[in-house]
C-alpha cells in the first residue's frame, strides 16, 4: 500500500455518514473533507502507524492529522481556508482516541475500495 492509493481510497469513501456527527448539517460535496479528520487520521494510522497530531482551536474544536517518518500527512486540511492559522499541535497516542462508528464505516469502505 502506498500513501497516494490510500488518499484516493479515503477521499472516495467520504460522505455525510463518515462526517463527525455535530458537523453533518454543514457537510456537502463542495467540501467533502469537512468533518472527516478524525476518522481519516485513524485509517491512515491503521496502514502507516506514526504519531497522531491534535490541534486544539480557541473555539473548542479540534483537528487531527498524522505524523509519519518526520512528515505531516493531513488528508483533510483542504477543508480549511488556505490562510487558516493553526495552533501548535500536541502529539497524542492512538489509545487516547475512540474507534467511532464513522471510523469503522470509513475503514470498511476503504478496505472494499482497495480490494476492488
What does this structure look like?
This protein has one domain (3-111). With 116 residues, it is α+β, with helices and mostly antiparallel strands. The two termini are 14 Å apart. The chain has helices spanning 3-13, 37-48, 101-115, and strands at 51-56, 62-68, 71-73, 90-92. 33% of the residues lie in helices and 16% in strands. A 4-stranded antiparallel sheet has the order 3-2-1-4, with helices on one face. It is globular, with a radius of gyration of 13 Å. The mean pLDDT is 95. The relative contact order is 0.22. Strand 1 (51-56) and strand 2 (62-68) form a beta hairpin.
Query: Which of globular, elongated, flat, extended, rod-shaped describes the shape?
Result: globular
Q: How many domain regions?
A: 1
The number of helical runs is 3
User: Hey, roughly how much beta strand do the residues contain?
Assistant: 15-25%
Radius of gyration: 13 Å
Order of helices and strands: HHEEEEH
What ranges have pLDDT less than 50 throughout 5 or more consecutive residues? none
Q: Give the overall pLDDT as a whole number.
A: 95
Structural class by secondary-structure content? alpha+beta
The side-by-side strand order for the widest beta sheet comes to 3-2-1-4
| End-to-end C-alpha gap | 14 Å
Most strands sheet? 4 strands, antiparallel
Helical residues, percent: 25-40%
The total strand number stands at 4
Amino acid at each position: 500500500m502506498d500513501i497516494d492509493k490510500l488518499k484516493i481510497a479515503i477521499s472516495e469513501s467520504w460522505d455525510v455518514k463518515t462526517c463527525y456527527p455535530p458537523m453533518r448539517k454543514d457537510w456537502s460535496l463542495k467540501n467533502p473533507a469537512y468533518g472527516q479528520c478524525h476518522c481519516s487520521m485513524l485509517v491512515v494510522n491503521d496502514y502507516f502507524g506514526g504519531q497522531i497530531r491534535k490541534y486544539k482551536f480557541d473555539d473548542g474544536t479540534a483537528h487531527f492529522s498524522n505524523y509519519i517518518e518526520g512528515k505531516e500527512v493531513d488528508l483533510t486540511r483542504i477543508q480549511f481556508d488556505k490562510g487558516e492559522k493553526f495552533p501548535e499541535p500536541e502529539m497524542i497516542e492512538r489509545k487516547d482516541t475512540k474507534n467511532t462508528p464513522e471510523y469503522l464505516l470509513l475503514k470498511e469502505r476503504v478496505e472494499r475500495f482497495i480490494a476492488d
